[in-house]
Amino acid sequence: MGREILIYCGIDWAEKTHDVALVDDTGQLLAKRHITDDAAGYKILLDLLAEYGDTEETPIPVAIETSRGLLRAGKRKVFAINPMAAARYRDRHSVSRKKSDPGDALVLANILRTDMHAHRSLPDDSDLARAIAVLARAQQDATWNRQQIANQLRSLLREYYPSALAAADVWKNGLCRPEVREILRAAPTPTRAAQLTRTQLQTALKRAGRQRGIKADAEQLRDIFRADWAHQPLLVEDALGKQMLALLVQLEAACAAADDLAEAVGEAFPQHPDAETILSFPGLGIQLGARVLAEIGDDRNRFADARGLKAYAGSSPITRASGKKSAVTRRWVKNDRLNHAGYLWSFSAITASPGAKTHYRRRRDEHGDWHAAAQRNLFNRMIGQLYHCLQHGQRFDEAVAFPFPSVGVVAA
User: Fold this and answer.
1) For residue 336, is it within any domain?
2) Is residue 408 part of a domain?
3) CA–CA–CA angle 228, 234, 239 (5° rounding)
4) pLDDT per position as a tens digit, 326-338
5) Where does the pLDDT of residue 96 fall: very low under 50, low under 70, confident under 90, or very high at 90 and above?
6) Are 297 and 338 in contact (CB under 8 A)?
7) What is the pLDDT of residues 36-93, one digit of tens each?
8) Can you give the pLDDT at residue 247?
């Protein structure tokens, strides 16, 4: 009986066309193709894989430099290779360091042939988890985009319209509030703002959706706009006002996108079986819980243990040793989205959970951690607890998670 030959596939992914290479377990190039990025090209790829023994029971593993695309629609193992790692492997095959797409496809296939055990395949998440990931990441991007445009608008208003910033401070997250946007649209310059009457201000607040406290707010805004402020020359002020209106259009679009995506996340996330467990943790709401699920997925075999998830999140420290020197530092290579969600999660948990607050205070007082280090340590503990609860289908239990007296509580 002959030995079974193992086949590995590498795909150099581009915008319009892709290069495919197949090698056997001896490194022999079996086939190469140049395919297009459409249904016809995808069919050529599937036919090529099937020609060399690809089946649903024994799919040929594929290495590629992207974690997205139509290949994820199947059940085969797809390995997303970091481009920096692929570049290091390329030096094994060519010392000239010149890049070629067919050569890169061959390099990717050989990465699986030699070091498949050192790379992780894409998780086998459910369709619902992947859909939530799309929505949660898009909502996070929209939120960041909204804040970036709001910062640009704030910087511009400081140049010629400081009274608008004072008016925005009346409300929390002022520049993103519909009331402030309506007022800026009605009065794009401080000169025009000073001319607004009480009736005009009340009308603008009503258009923004306000129903209570309209008269008091209108009076307060009128006093702010009619106070003494420094002014730019009239022509410059008008030009800056037009620039502000252009930024305001972008901000309104970003606010609408963030709100619409947040609503979509709020509809999709509670449908997931893991939502109940995730939402039982203090500090995690619909939006933040969806971001956590989006990054860890629902494939229970993705992480071998809680330590793997902690390393992936960047919450656990890493020890580097060289000779007689060793250093314990935080991780720089991590899932940045999950790490950012963990920062917000631990910050909220400090006030939402007595046990989390006690843990944070102990890290500050007894271990001498700075705020960021203590907060990261709390995140490290809680994400380990989340891993345990998800694996065993349990809800968060304060007494089990933090079995020590809370702040201000005297032990019996």
Assistant:
1) yes
2) no
3) 115
4) 777 777 778 899 9
5) low
6) no
7) 888 888 888 888 888 888 888 888 889 888 766 656 555 678 888 888 877 777 776 6
8) 95
**Shared domain check, 372 and 312:** yes
pLDDT of 172 over the 70 cut: yes
The reply to whether 189 and 67 lie within a common domain is: no
Is residue 216, in this structure, part of any structural domain at all? Answer: yes
Please list the residues that pair with 31 across neighbouring strands.
Answer: 22
CATH number (domain holding residue 75): 3.30.420.40
Q: How do residues 21-37 score in pLDDT, each as one tens digit?
A: 999 888 888 988 888 88
C-alpha of 135 from chain center: 10
Contact 355, 398 (CB under 8 A): yes
Domain boundary among 215, 236, 267: 267
Tell me what percent of the chain is helix, strand and coil, each rounded to the nearest 5.
60, 10, 30
The number of beta carbons lying within 10 Å of the beta carbon of residue 92 is 11
Do 181 and 254 sit in the same domain of this protein?
A: yes
Q: Is 121 exposed, middle or buried (0-12, 13-18, 19+ CB in 10 A)?
A: middle
Residue 258 shares a structural domain with residue 142: yes
Nearest to 290 by CA among 259, 313, 268: 268
pTM greater than the 0.70 cutoff = yes
Where in the sequence is the domain holding 35, given as residue range(s)?
Answer: 7-118
Write out the two tokens for 18.
Answer: 């892709």
Residue 125 three-state SS: coil
Number of Cβ within a 10 Å radius of residue 201: 26
Number of domains in the chain: 3
Q: What is the pLDDT of residue 75?
A: 66
